[in-house]
Amino acid sequence: MAEAGNYQPLRGGYNNQLYNSTAQQQSSAKSTQLAKAATAITAGGSLLILSALVTAGTVIGLTIVTPLFVIFSPVLVPAVITVALLTLGFLASGGFGVAAITVLAWIYKYVTGNHPPGADQLDTARHRLINKARELKDYSQQQISGAQSS
What we know:
Elements: H1 13-111, H2 119-149
């Protein structure tokens, strides 16, 4: 038997299996991190090369097209302005149309008795206006009757 001061844990068995599974988990975690790093480096490098190619193509394209822009600028500038104004006009008219349809749908819901968002605020404002109109009417009637009596 083991002496009281000389305790040694059992070797092998459960403790050894626990050590092996922990080592496997650490090894698996390291290989996962390595795979993630390799993927990130590959993707980042590919995107960096693609970015450099696009930049170089843009510079070359601008170098070739710039003389044409200078030669045709008396025609191109008014054409671009016209196209931009037409585009903005169509977008604005579409936006106003969508806004009008939305407002008409809200009014329809309000009139038919449904409770659209903001109906409470509209009712509150309407009641305030009615109350102020009554107060103003009463005040003016008092002023008129006071002026007639004196």
